[in-house]
Design a protein that fits this description.
Shape: globular
Largest sheet: 2 strands, antiparallel
Number of domains: 1
CATH superfamily: MetI-like
Helix content: over 70%
CATH topology: MetI-like fold
Number of strands: 2
CATH class: Mainly Alpha
Radius of gyration: 23 Å
Number of helices: 11
Strand content: under 5%
């Protein structure tokens, strides 16, 4: 019996190890392939100039700046709503049928395809709210897309704070809101910030929602939230599928910049989480 158990344990660990190696190997291969084919096309002119001749010449500065504006808009709109919703659901709402229904809805929204959010943004923000095809409409659409991720990450971070912290604060005479603001939230900040940055990094790589709500292959920089804009995912889509005769290194260089931007967001999340945890341990 023990031999069978040891054999099944060895087999299970072997399968898990092989699966892990396959995943890591695939990621390393994809990143290496993009770096090899795209590194030669990246230089200062490519990063600082505006696109010319439909991207055949010039650079991708308008796409980089448009992506930055888009991410700022996502943080501005998604962060307050998602954080306040998470605080209410975790700290104030009574657990019951309605809360379970809300939780189920949040989980389902996280799995909705991004093109569905794009069609919603087109019908609601662009047409009904008369924002037009603009940076504002695209930011609000992407905010709706990442909102379930922000709410879920913030709720998990709040739930990880021990109840003894809340009870001690209330026993000292603090109100419910004072307890949340001064005790619970500082303890939950690492998880909340990590979830927000990961949500923003996901939004940075989305193409379908912004394709129908605000992007345009243009070298003109947006001057207001109601202007159209260019973004790295859309720029990559255009140069890879819509522009004949474009040099291959331009496609791969654009993909490498987009990949680097997403990896930078993820690395920022890891560093901020580590520093906040170290700060908590120092003052706890």
């Amino acid at each position: 019996m023990s031999k069978k158990r040891n054999l099944s344990q060895i087999l299970a660990f072997s399968l898990m190890g092989i699966s892990c190696l396959l995943v890591i190997g695939s990621v390393v291969f994809i990143i290496s392939y993009i770096i090899v084919h795209g590194a030669g096309g990246i230089n200062w002119e490519f990063l600082s100039q505006l696109p010319k001749k439909r991207g055949i010449e010039g650079g991708i500065f308008s796409a980089i700046l448009g992506t930055f504006y888009l991410m700022v808009g996502v943080v501005v709109f998604a962060l307050p709503v998602g954080l306040l919703a998470a605080i209410y659901l975790q700290e104030y709402a009574r657990q019951g049928r309605i809360v379970r229904l809300i939780n189920l809805s949040i989980v389902n929204l996280a799995g909705v395809p991004s093109i569905v959010y794009g069609l919603f943004g087109l019908s609601f923000f662009v047409l009904m709210m008369k924002m037009g095809s603009s940076l504002l409409a695209a930011s609000l659409t992407l905010s709706c897309l990442v909102l379930p991720v922000v709410v879920t990450a913030a709720r998990e971070a709040l739930a990880a704070v021990p109840n003894s912290f809340r009870e001690a604060s209330l026993a000292l005479g603090a109100t419910k809101w004072q307890t949340i603001r001064r005790v619970v939230l500082p303890q939950a900040y690492p998880g909340i910030i990590t979830g927000i940055i990961l949500a923003v990094s996901r939004a940075a790589g989305e193409t379908a929602p912004i394709l129908v709500t605000g992007t345009a292959f243009t070298a003109i920089l947006p001057r207001s939230p109601l202007d159209q804009f260019n973004a790295l995912p859309y720029h990559l889509y255009v140069v890879a599928t819509q522009v004949p005769g474009i040099p291959p290194e331009i496609k791969w260089a654009t993909a490498l910049v987009l990949l680097g931007l997403v990896l930078l967001f993820n690395l920022t999340a890891i560093i901020m989480r580590a520093r906040l945890r170290a700060f908590k341990k120092k003052w706890s």
